[in-house]
């Protein structure tokens, strides 16, 4: 795995409008003193005012491709080379698959080979599609989703601590939770011989986000202060009171580790709550140490526990298979990658008549670059 490196970013504001900046990035501000009430912090607070993003709108890769287009235009018009361009969530799904084959693990992704004039063709994947048999989230699951967003709200402030007023800090939890707001990092990375351009949501920065031009005026790699080193992943989990809860948490850590690892995020903070949604405490985890922690657990078993090296190896093989299986001459054709729960294989097939899911601005920009050569 090549060290991930952020090269651009974008934000969604409260109206879900795309902004080419880091204005929606939060900054960590989480004190155990804030939880020192009789029952802990009530994560259900404000649920009746929750502003939810329209889940019926399929945004495909739009934000990522529009941001990539803008970056290329502002940096001499040079194409950003990559074999895979996708969201971090798609890679996480594949990376965890060897250890999550049961239950609701069925998924389907769209893939297309685009822009073969690049030194290396670019494969793009759309968001996953839910099975037609899936049911809408029930009230309990919706509430539990809200707890995660509420934890992010109470754990962050809108600017670095030194730039925030006392009022901004003390009233940070008074506004309605709005999950339209997101900050996304776009990184370059690689796995085996596959080069990747990956976009992923970042929950917050632990202290500040470095400015590349300020910290690295001569573009010296040794002086480069990688923004990814400052990012933090935030999660919630039920308080662990018994062995079953501990085993379930260790299984959950697979996804926490995978999505943080893929984006180069070094730290994860897990808030522990009661079944009724009262936040009791939180714990920090160093992402790179999580796989070793699992192997040292008293619950570890080679046949039943997850293994980080195996997950990485499977993802590398899967991406290499995708890269070499889709013919470059079929530029723009859409393929489907499908997995059916409990099966032992992935299916890759053409999708005749499937409309392109690429943003028209990106398509037009890359076409313009081809014709100018």
Automatic annotation (TrEMBL):
Superkingdom per UniProt: Eukaryota
Keyword Cell inner membrane: no
Subcellular compartments: Nucleus
Name of the protein this chain belongs to: Decapping nuclease
Sequence similarity: Belongs to the DXO/Dom3Z family.
Cofactor: a divalent metal cation
Role description: Decapping enzyme for NAD-capped RNAs: specifically hydrolyzes the nicotinamide adenine dinucleotide (NAD) cap from a subset of RNAs by removing the entire NAD moiety from the 5'-end of an NAD-capped RNA.
The keyword Cell wall biogenesis/degradation is annotated on this UniProt entry: no
Main location group: nucleus
Keyword field: Hydrolase, Metal-binding, Nuclease, Nucleotide-binding, Nucleus, RNA-binding
